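Run log, item B.
One chain of 101 residues. Sequence copied directly from the ordering sheet:
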Amino acid sequence: MYISWNEGFTTNLIRTYYRLLKKADVPKIRFHDLRHSHATLLLKKGVHPKIAQERLGHANIRITLDTYSHVLPNMQSEAAKQFGDSLFNKDDDKENSKKAL
C-alpha cells in the first residue's frame, strides 16, 4: 500500500517527526535521510536489492542500484568468500567427514 503524498500530509508528517525528535532528545536529521539509512542498512545486511527497491517504492531496481551502489563494493569480498567456501566445500567439511565415516 502506498500513501498519496499531498502537501498537507507531508507538512504534518514532517512537523510531527521533528517534534518527536526534539522530545526524544536525539540529533536532528532530515526525514529523507531515514530512507537512505534504511536502504543502506538493508543492503549491508545482505537483503536482496529487489527487496530494498520494493520497500523504497522505486519504479525499477536500476534506480536502487544506481543510488546505493556505493554500499555494494564492500559486499563483493564477502560474496567471493562465500562462493569460495561453497566451491571448496568449506561449509560442509564437518558434515562430509561425518558421512565418510
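Observations after the first pass:
- The radius of gyration is 21 Å.
- The mean pLDDT is 83.
Flagged for discussion on Thursday.
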